[in-house]
Amino acid sequence: MEAVKNENNEEFVVHNLSEDMIEERLLPAMNKSDMCTCPRCRADVRSYALNHYPAQYVVSTRGNAWVLARGVSAQTNADLLSAIMQGIALVKKDPRH
Ligand SMILES: [Zn+2]
Q1: Torsion (CA) 6, 54, 30, 40 in degrees, nearest 10
Q2: Nearest Cα residue to 22 out of 44, 53, 59, 68
Q3: Count of beta carbons in the 10 Å neighbourhood of residue 23
Q4: What confidence category does residue 10 fall into, taking pLDDT thresholds of 50, 70 and 90?
Q5: CA of 52 relative to ligand 1 center, distance in Å
Q6: How far is the CA of 9 from the centre of ligand 1 (A)?
Q7: Under DSSP, is residue 96 helix (H, G, I), strand (E, B) or coil?
Q8: Looking at the chain, which terminus has fewer C-beta neighbours within 10 angstroms, N or C?
Q9: Which residues neighbour 39 within 8 Å (Cβ) at sequence distance 6 or greater?
Q10: What pLDDT, in 10s, does the model give residues 35-91?
Q11: Rg value, the chain, Cα
Q12: If you write DSSP's letter for every residue of 2-67 in order, what string do you get?
């Protein structure tokens, strides 16, 4: 995460909304897949999914809650789950914990 301040000392933060959208789907998907959910395996699936789903950056001032996209489209949801499920398949087959 990168922070930039302007002349009024306001701090602007660049945040990837895809991280939030993947995070909220990560553990439920892993639980359904009957696999290890230790911190290393969660991090490996998260990292795979983030590398295979486009980043969606937004700018916010620090301290403000992110404006989360509520109710993503069915296609977006399917794409997010697809990236997560690919990561799950790889990590489940060859866990690095
Ligand atoms: Zn594990």
Answers
A1: -60
A2: 53
A3: 13
A4: confident
A5: 21
A6: 43
A7: coil
A8: N
A9: none
A10: 999 999 999 999 999 999 999 998 887 666 555 556 789 999 999 999 999 999 999
A11: 16
A12: EEEE-TT--EEEEEEHHHHHHHHHHHHHHHHTT----HHHHHHHHHHHHHTS---EEEEETTSPP-
Residues in the chain: 97
Residues with C-beta atoms within 5 A of ion ligand 1: 36, 38, 41, 97
Measured distance CA(81)–CA(23) in Å, rounded? 11
Distance between CA atoms of 58 and 16, rounded to whole angstroms? 6
Cβ atoms of 20 and 80 closer than 8 Å: no
The rounded Å distance from CA 88 to ligand 1 centre is: 11
